[in-house]
């Protein structure tokens, strides 16, 4: 069998496997016959010596594969020697029989492996045959391509010879060109060469000039940017100093009644000068990087107009704070944030998008993001809004009168709603009427007008604003939030007081000491999501996160507002003054970045599960209290009914008694 094989590796493999099988069979036979230990040991020694001799011969011949196989055989022989030693040293026949069975199983396993290798060999031979046939086909194809290429080369050679013959005939063009024409052409060529050299020299000079100008322009641009940054910092510091100066004046204004008359007059003059100073005129005289306009992009007044004379100084302070914050954050925060938003493609819910929305959506992206949020959470139908409008025209809703009363009182600090003739007033009316028909369980509740107005300012489209209102009332807010009893709104106030005690215990103790009920201030925050409470820039940042995450954002920002002003509140030790401060202190918050960091970083952890559990607990308590109140009311009505109507003659007025 070995002679019939073609390759040395196959012969070595067959020799190795045949020798291994024969040695193991002889070993098993000797064990079964019960041969003496010395004979068996001699057999193993001879077998190992034979394998070693074969290994040396293979090494001498330089057959690497045969050397590897003989190494394997030598290791196998040594293993069998150890097994035989175990067999002969075994104390009982039972142990020897178990060793013999183990060897038989090994032989059967090797036989099955040999058969599997034989089968694999046959499969490989078949694959080799298929590959040979495929190679043969490829060779034929290559031969055909070579013949085609040879034919093409012959055609190319023929065409080349034909062209050479045609070009060798000098009579066509040589006869048409005279000697003078050639001389003129040579002169023109020389002139053109001189012009080319001159242009090259001029071009090199211009390139060097352009390079120098570019370097100068780059240097000037960098210096200008550095100067603008420095100027922005200086203007921000100047605004801070002016704000502090006005704050001192305001403190003095509060202390005027206790000052001498001369000092009081001086304070009044300084305050009057500060109020007469116009930011716009001052900005036009000098260099202003970021002027504070009267209205922002959505029509909100940037500086409120306080009717009370004492608060006008407060408006000046607020204007300076807004300008200072804008100058500080423009290059450091706003520009990188805008670049991140510009790189956002198709919107999809993710942790990265959540973080971006919390940081605030730039004006140019806010409408697109809000539309996506509303569409993602509501999935509105395109024809529903039009049907609701037709219904509101044909049938008057019971809430129509209340809506008309609230329209002139909506966002009075916004130029798009400040006048009854504003274009957004009719749109707001239609949105509120459509919602009243869409959700008859609520109809209309005071506060919905302000929610719909903010949605209209950002989304601009009536239908989108309608679905945004639906999203807020039906998806974000809990049930019964805008019902007649406002029961869930009352529950949230109790939950908020719990959180205020846990997150800001000093402040809550201060409120309890002076018997301050914070729900008188915060109830409206929750009902309209801070509309008319915060400055417009911060308000819209709150709404960005609120529309995406839900009511938990309202709790976060409400707590953050109190933490932002905690030290100022703790310095007030009079309940009336505390209430007066809480009436307007939200309008004094101008640093939206600081407020955002407090809301989303300093107040952690803030699990939604805890909020739901607290709501459930306080709702049960409130419902029990309301039930008890109804029972008291019913008992009182019953008692009055049992007493019957009193005789008017028996009722004596106070005047008659005095007479």
Written description of the protein model:
- The protein has helices at residues 8-33, 37-61, 64-89, 93-167, 179-254, 261-276, 279-285, 312-342, 351-359, 363-378, 384-394, 400-406, 424-438, 448-459, 462-476, 487-503, 505-513, 519-528, 536-549, 552-564, 566-570, 575-584, 592-602, 608-643, 654-658.
- The longest helix is centred in the first third of the chain and has 76 residues, at 179-254.
- 75% of the residues lie in helices and 0% in strands.
- It is mainly α.
- It has four domains: 8-132, no CATH class; 205-325, no CATH class; 374-475, putative rabgap domain of human tbc1 domain family member 14 like domains (Helicase, Ruva Protein, domain 3); 487-626, Cyclin A, domain 1.
Report strand %: under 5%
Mean pLDDT: 80
Give the % helix. over 70%
Rg (C-alpha, Å): 49 Å
Largest sheet: none
Query: Number of helical runs?
Result: 25
In summary, what is this structure?
The chain is mainly α. The chain has helices at residues 8-33, 37-61, 64-89, 93-167, 179-254, 261-276, 279-285, 312-342, 351-359, 363-378, 384-394, 400-406, 424-438, 448-459, 462-476, 487-503, 505-513, 519-528, 536-549, 552-564, 566-570, 575-584, 592-602, 608-643, 654-658.
């Amino acid at each position: 069998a070995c002679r019939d094989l073609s390759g040395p590796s196959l012969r070595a493999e067959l020799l190795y496997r045949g020798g291994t099988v024969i040695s193991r069979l002889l070993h098993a036979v000797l064990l079964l016959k019960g041969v003496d230990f010395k004979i068996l040991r001699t057999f193993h020694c001879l077998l190992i010596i034979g394998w070693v001799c074969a290994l040396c011969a293979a090494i001498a011949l330089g057959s690497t594969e045969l050397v590897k196989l003989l190494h394997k055989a030598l290791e196998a022989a040594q293993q069998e020697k150890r097994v035989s030693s175990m067999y002969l040293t075994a104390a009982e026949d039972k142990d020897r029989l178990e060793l013999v069975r183990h060897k038989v199983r090994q032989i059967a396993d090797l036989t099955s492996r040999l058969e599997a290798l034989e089968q694999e060999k046959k499969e490989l031979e078949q694959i080799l045959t298929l590959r040979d046939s495929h190679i043969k086909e490829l060779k034929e194809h290559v031969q055909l391509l070579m013949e085609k290429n040879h034919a093409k080369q012959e055609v190319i050679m023929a065409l080349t010879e034909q062209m050479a013959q045609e070009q060798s005939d000098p009579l066509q063009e040589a006869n048409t060109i005279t000697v003078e024409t050639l001389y003129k052409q040579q002169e023109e060529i020389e002139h053109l060469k001189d012009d080319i050299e001159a242009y090259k020299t001029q071009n090199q000079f211009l390139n060097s000039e352009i390079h120098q100008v570019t370097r100068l322009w780059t240097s000037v641009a960098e210096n200008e940017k550095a100067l603008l940054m420095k100027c922005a910092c200086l203007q921000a510091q100047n605004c801070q100093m002016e704000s502090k100066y006005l704050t001192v004046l305001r403190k003095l204004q509060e202390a005027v009644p206790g000052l001498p008359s001369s000092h009081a007059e001086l304070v009044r003059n300084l305050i009057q000068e500060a109020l007469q100073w116009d930011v716009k005129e001052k900005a036009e005289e000098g260099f202003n990087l970021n002027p504070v306009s009267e209205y922002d992009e959505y029509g909100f007044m940037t500086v409120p107009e306080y009717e009370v004379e004492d608060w006008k100084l407060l408006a000046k302070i607020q204007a300076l704070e807004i300008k200072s914050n804008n100058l500080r954050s423009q290059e450091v925060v706003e520009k990188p944030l805008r670049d991140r938003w510009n790189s956002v493609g198709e919107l999809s819910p993710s942790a990265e998008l959540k973080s971006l929305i919390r940081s605030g959506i730039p004006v140019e992206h806010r409408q697109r993001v809000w539309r996506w949020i509303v569409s993602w959470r509501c999935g509105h139908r395109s024809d529903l809004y039009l049907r609701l409008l037709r219904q509101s025209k044909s049938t008057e809703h019971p809430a129509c009168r209340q809506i008309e009363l609230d329209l002139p009182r909506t966002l009075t600090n916004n130029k798009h709603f400040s006048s009854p003739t504003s274009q957004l007033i009719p749109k707001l009316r239609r949105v509120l009427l459509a919602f009243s028909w869409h959700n008859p369980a609520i109809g209309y509740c005071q506060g919905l007008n302000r929610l719909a107005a903010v949605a209209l300012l950002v989304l601009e489209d009536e239908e989108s604003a309608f679905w945004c209102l639906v999203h807020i009332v039906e998806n974000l807010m809990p049930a019964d939030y805008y019902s007649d009893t406002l029961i869930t709104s009352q529950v949230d106030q109790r939950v908020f007081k719990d959180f205020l005690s846990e997150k800001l215990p000093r402040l809550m103790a201060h409120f309890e000491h002076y018997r301050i009920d914070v729900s008188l201030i915060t109830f409206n925050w929750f009902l309209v999501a801070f509309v008319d409470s915060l400055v417009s820039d911060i308000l819209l940042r709150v709404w960005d996160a609120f529309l995406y995450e839900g009511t938990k954002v309202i709790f976060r920002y409400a707590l953050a507002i109190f933490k932002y002003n905690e030290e100022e509140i703790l310095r007030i030790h009079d309940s009336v003054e505390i209430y007066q401060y809480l009436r307007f202190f939200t309008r004094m918050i101008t640093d939206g970045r600081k407020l955002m960091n407090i809301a989303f970083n300093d107040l952690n952890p803030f699990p939604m599960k805890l909020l739901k559990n607290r709501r459930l607990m306080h709702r049960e308590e409130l419902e029990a209290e309301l039930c008890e109140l109804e029972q008291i009311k019913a008992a009182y009505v019953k008692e009055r009914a049992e007493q019957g109507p009193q005789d008017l003659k028996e009722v004596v007025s106070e005047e008659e008694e005095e007479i």
